[in-house]
Amino acid sequence: MAERAVTIRDVGPRDGLQAEAPVDPQRRLDLAVALAGAGVGDIEAASFVSPRAVPAMAGAADVFAALPALDSVCWWALVPNRRGAELAMDAGVKAVTFTVSASAAYSAKNVGMTPQEGVAALGEIAGVLGAQDADIRLDTVISYSFGSPFGDVPDVGVVAAMVDQIRAAMPGTITLADTTGTATPRRVAAVLNRVGTDVGLHLHDTRGIALSNALAALDLGVRRFDTSVGGLGGSPFAPGAGGNLATEDLVLVLEDGGIDTGIDLDALLRISRGLSALVGHDVPSRTSAAGPVPSFAD
Amino acid sequence: MAERAVTIRDVGPRDGLQAEAPVDPQRRLDLAVALAGAGVGDIEAASFVSPRAVPAMAGAADVFAALPALDSVCWWALVPNRRGAELAMDAGVKAVTFTVSASAAYSAKNVGMTPQEGVAALGEIAGVLGAQDADIRLDTVISYSFGSPFGDVPDVGVVAAMVDQIRAAMPGTITLADTTGTATPRRVAAVLNRVGTDVGLHLHDTRGIALSNALAALDLGVRRFDTSVGGLGGSPFAPGAGGNLATEDLVLVLEDGGIDTGIDLDALLRISRGLSALVGHDVPSRTSAAGPVPSFAD
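ok -> structure tokens follow
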């Protein structure tokens, strides 16, 4: 398989569905497998969060037990803490996303730690995982990397210091999350100019700017993006987050621009058009409703 | 008043409302005047189309009779044909938008002419207007400049030839319209590289790409954009057009990037939040619902 010019991780089965009315694990599994069939190479399939905290993510181990082993796909799971890490290891997870928050207000409220303590705690967990399985992939997601709606003001310096701390404490990659859609192309450039472009971006489309932010990052050299089929998404802990950047929106623009994603847009749109039956409402992506662009010679 | 770095023409009172259930002229007038109060310097306030063809635009002369004369605002009216031009002149209109179509299929169906015949006909009307009033401003809008949903395939060469024909036949400026939201950043660049950047862009957000297209054009040097408050819009003659690029989406990103539009975002958002009562449904702009971005230091 040719190397993809841009890596898209579809987080639909996890971030896309976590704030919806619960969908049973079999149908979340079906969605993940369908995405693989459309050529998506990285898929966040489940979250090993407590089902009491997030009922929509119950049954993560069942999902992972049934995922097919495919050379072409890396199946990711979100792990919120040490207990989740243990459950994920028991379930055979080989690729883990951790989250820490650049918002001190969010971090204090939701995990009772400072952002710095959060990174230190993750470093310990990562050490345990690495000792158990040297082949495990880790990706640390920094939430609120482009602003916070909680009154505190994370700035570029805060985010850059967290990136430095994570690079020192943790193996693996880093993804910067725009958790409630407060990024702009200028803010994206300001952060990337400080931390470099060897990061992924996880963008929410709260204000309709997510695609523009992704393209600004692409221009600067970023090559990894989290998206969600249909533009589903939102956090039970981040009111007003808005959906994720829709996978089909990004794939349409990248493929039209000659940038290979490895994803078949028509197959992806067939999946997207089936989502309203899964979640009981229209999906946010306008591309999902309108379909591909008609041809135009240049 | 300082010169604006980017000129935004809000077409909400015209393109935004023409496909909605009819709103009486007084309320369309109120919307236009409110936009002026928010700092919008160019406003398309009415269309002198036959009220039988587009009932929502009835009363254009009444709107223009009541518009305040403001040094800071240019009030535009769409004129579809010679009869419309005569009515507009009688109503005291000083800035006229004409439309021609790069789609031969659309042009044949809607005006019974080839695109070239359409430009020639406009040239005659423009000559009559210019003879009556030397100070009149004209802007010729080329619809379907980035693709057609009607099966024909306007390409860059077709659009470039029309631009050349219009420049030879017509005074005034040219605006390229993405009538049904089929543009992409690559297509925008391909067209602008052929016709130059001394054009305006009129973008529809059918696929959620309009803002990205605008920013791609801005990077290349375009400084004039048509937008619609709330992202309202659509054509009675172009099914599936989707709304216009929302004024508040573009203003948010430009002002955040230090690019002066002369428009007060908070005032604009107050107008936008009142639109649902006017049209009876939520407006498409996500920025309208979510509001400005919280501060972020860089």
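Chain B touches chain A through 46 residues (CB under 8 Å).
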